[in-house]
Amino acid sequence: MSKTSTALDNLRGFAILNVVAFHACIAYLNSQPPAALPFDKPPYGWTVNPIVDSARWLGFDLFCAFQYVYLMHLMFFLSGLFVWSSLQRKGAKTFLFDRILRIGVPFVLGVYLLMPLAYYPVYLVTAVDPAWSAFWSRWIALPFWPSGPMWFLWLLLAFNLVAAALFRLAPRVGDYLGRLSSGAGAHPVRYCLALAGITALVYVPLSLIYKPWQWVGYGPFNFQPSFVLQYAVYFFAGVGLGAYGFERGLLGPDGMLVRRWGRWVAAAPTAFALWIIPTALIVQGPGAGVPGLQFVADIGFVLASATACLAFAAVFLRFATTHQPILHRLSENAYGIYFVHYVFLIWLQYLLLSVSLPAVAKALIVFVVTLALSWAVTAAFCSLSIGARLMRGKRRVLASASAPVNTSE
What we know:
This protein is mainly α. Helix content is 68%, strand content 3%.
């Protein structure tokens, strides 16, 4: 495995840690609603704040705000890096079959099997009748089917379908995207500004219509309308870098991004401040009527997203280009951890509601136990052939009970 591939593998492991940490902290935000929200009445705010705990800490608001700015952008960006090479290797038909199997099937299973289990304790918080049958009758009466974190899977599958269609109908699109990315290695700042500029074009108009925390759902297909086009930009930015060859471009181990990693680390919190300060003024009231402040916040958001993604890439390309056992195992099990973690996480937050502990202690318990249980379940599932195929993209063939396992894509 090359230095760049190893660094990206480690970054993927780091990203799943942050996903679990982000969700673990949400119940303890200082900005949470004052009490649990009704389960069967609009606007169904529990889909954003599933468990509302009285233990809170302002530090979690800052941590989650920073993750909110870049984390899913980074995940879509990383997901796009290997798409074009996979299409070239497999062809559109095989690629689509593989993606439907590995993303579409888990999405259906996750939405219709795991999400009712995950959201049952959310119902219990305000329930008069705690029976499962009472929960189920209210669940199926909802005007949408809550998908929780499974929204990422269907949207990722949609982007993959678009990429496959482009490969089939306009195969030179990959070369075109690659050419657009060719100068990124020598001019990462220019690339960052272009990425932020394009996302601003698709984000600013939508932000005038939809709030950043607003969700839209059609059956199980839920998404944030103000962010969906941003995610598409990051995914296809990854496709372009992968088509050009990321090891000789922006993500090259000796490129300008890596050499100036310190500047990117400094730029990320600076750009974050450009978003969080005007946003706080707007939300708290003093800046609500200031002309142009919302536009400043929107520009700060897209700059913060781009700089944070590139800053983390720079740090990992500079300091994590060797095999890191824990991060590698996390990366290997990242999909499975993402798939199952919400069930354990919400139940743990629910069980800790009546426990008298500081918010930091509760969040740490939820994070550690959720990660451990999700990791263990994923490892156990992936010991089966079907689990390895769905969660790791590998076909496992066991010659005998004592024989080594052979894997191949």
